[in-house]
Amino acid sequence: MSMNRVFKFILIIFMLLVVIGASACIDEETEGTAEGAEAGEGSQDLVVGVGTDVSSWYLDMFASGDARFVWAQVYETLVRLDSDLNVIPGLAESWESSDDGKTWIFHLRENVTFHDGTPFNADSVVFSYSNQSYVRQAVLRPVQSVEALDDHTVQFVLAKPMPLPFYLTHIAWPVMGPSCLDAEGNFVKPVGTGPFKFDTQAKDQEIVLTKNEAYWGEQPLLDKVTFKVIPEAATRVIALETGEVDMIIKVPEYDVARLEAEEGIQIHRKLTTFTDFLQFNCEKSPFDDTRVRQSVAYAIDTETLVNEVLEGIGEPAGGRAYSPVMMYSDPDLETYTPDLDKAKDLLEEAGWKDADGDGIAEKDGEPLHVTLIVSKGVWAARHNPMAQVVQGTLREVGMDVEIQVLDEGAISKLESAGDFDMILRSGYFVWGPYPRHFFVHHSGNPYSHYNNETYDQLVDEADMTLDSQEQEELYHSLQAFVTEEVPAFYLVHEEKVVATGPAVNGYVISSEDPWLNLSGIYLERT
After folding, report:
1. What range(s) does the Solute-binding protein family domain occupy (predicted)?
2. Same structural domain for residues 411 and 461?
3. Which of 9, 268, 368, 404 makes an SS bond possible with 509, Cβ 3.0 to 4.6 Å?
4. Could you tell me which of 337, 326, 264, 327 has the C-alpha nearest to residue 299?
């Protein structure tokens, strides 16, 4: 064989080996892509970043913090709200009241089962609203009895008239399956009727829920939802940006503009039912004097809080107690316009003057020093910078404000002892559109720190009135009363801000807070 023929033969063999090798690489790459598509594009496993874990799943405790976003997937209520706060049927298809408003009858959905296959019926409603439930002890104290009239009809009898359906929309007191308890009455696991079932929980790490294949309503498109507990707001944002999570709740306002500019990330915003407010201890000096409370109201510029601290997210309240999305929120209510001179004059009228020129007012030789408590909880990212602005503004009128950032347990102890001046809060007695929040200042509430007989009578009368026009007039009167008397000064009507990653489709934000609607969400991973 000539050298030329040998060379050609070797060249052919080499080319064949190259082709075979390339084919093998292509096969491996194709196989990897197929596996990625199966685990990626086809996966309907959503990961949500939340700030707090679920510390309780049972009806005898209030679901605090972000736990309610998780409860909203597992449990359901008799009455629901749509994304614009309109009342719609939940586990009850319909309801009616007697003429006096003291008896309510709910007609329940049929063919609904709990996650363990046991039937949802009137007995489960009686169980969920028994005397041991948190809601009966703390909220629905006027309820005298809950009775099953038949398998799918329940009767609530109350000591006084009240708009019960609005009270039953809150996910913190849902319907639970009696089988969540063992034979000895010990809680075993969450048993609800919701679109997702409880699977596992690793304390302070994550909660895993799986699709309820037997769900009575519209079937969820997701197969699994994992709630990852990430306490720090900044860390949750990073987790979204790196793809560790698909969705985060309570996005810090200062991150919104940057996230909106990032490709693939969507920001969802909607004015919600919550309003940030300064609650005063009206039972001790200096805030036992209405003029001092009014001085604070004139001093603080709530537009500055929204535009400069919260990056334009939210709506300035100017003392208005109720968000515009709430029932009976008075659009013509006269609110506060910032006026530092007026604020100083009111302090002087109350006897507080800067006699030594150090910038701090004094009375009877005592400086005007007050504390402002801020929680370390889920609202800390917005409340901390707001508190600093309040501190600086009140310094201008002669008030020395000390900010104390504490956990909820420490706050509760100080509040129980009456050892505080101001607390920065959000929401409180707020669920759905109904103006239940006014009870926060009712003297019957141990944490009201305000006692006014006229106010109490107005609150009681408004809650017991069934005629909507009369009720609206009463709630308008209450809003004017709070604005004038200032048991609290209302700062900002909150916007709910949720961020979703590039894989998330179909999310619809709701004005209700706390509430997370996952219906219609599906994932397209690349």
Report:
1. 87-435
2. yes
3. 268
4. 337
In 99-142, beta strands by DSSP E: 103-108
> 132, 192, 139, 131: which is closest to 164 by C-alpha?
139
Q: Cα–Cα distance between 490 and 477 in angstroms, integer? A: 16
Q: What is the CATH number of the domain that holds 221?
A: 3.40.190.10
How high is the pLDDT of residue 41?
A: 53
User: Rounded CA gap, 130 and 80, in Å?
Assistant: 21
**What residue type is 210 in one-letter code?**
T
Percent of the chain with pLDDT over 70: 92
- The domain total for the chain is 3
Domain boundary (180, 211, 241) is at 180
User: Are residues 449 and 358 located together in one domain of the fold?
Assistant: yes
Quick one: 459 exposed, middle or buried, by C-beta within 10 A (0-12, 13-18, 19+)? buried
Gap between the Cα atoms of 309 and 515, Å rounded: 25
Residue 447, pLDDT score: 87
Q: How far is CA 394 from the centre of its chain?
A: 29
Residue 251 to residue 269: CA distance in whole angstroms: 10
Show the domain range for 254: 196-265+501-523
- Token pair belonging to 480: 């004017």
Pairing of strands 422-426, 369-375: parallel
Is the per-residue pLDDT at 30 higher than 60? no
